[in-house]
Specification:
By secondary structure, the chain is mainly beta. The protein is built from 1 helix and 7 strands, in the order βαββββββ. The chain starts with 7 loop residues before the first strand and ends with a strand.
Length: 84
């Protein structure tokens, strides 16, 4: 779960939690696509699995840098097979 304190992108919310010392994550930037999250809290998915972003219980339709959220939204990352 990623707490959201103000309207922002999921990436901004994650960076705020990282600055506060509550979250670690890493990823790779792809030109034209944005950041692909590859590791959360030191956990890298095993082969065939990925970190999938969910907002309010549904898979996000945008990437982490473009998905906008507000404090009422529930942001989750789930380790699972690709849904795309």
């Amino acid at each position: 779960l990623v707490p959201v304190y103000t309207a922002c992108s999921v990436l901004d919310a994650m960076r705020e939690e990282e600055r506060a010392g509550n979250l670690t994550f890493a990823g790779k930037e792809y030109p034209g696509l944005g950041l692909f999250v590859e590791e959360i809290q030191g956990v890298r998915p095993p082969d065939g699995k990925y970190w999938i972003l969910y907002i309010n219980g549904s898979p996000a339709s945008r990437g982490v840098a473009e998905a906008m959220v507000t404090p009422k939204d529930l942001v989750e990352w789930k380790l699972e097979e690709s849904i795309y």
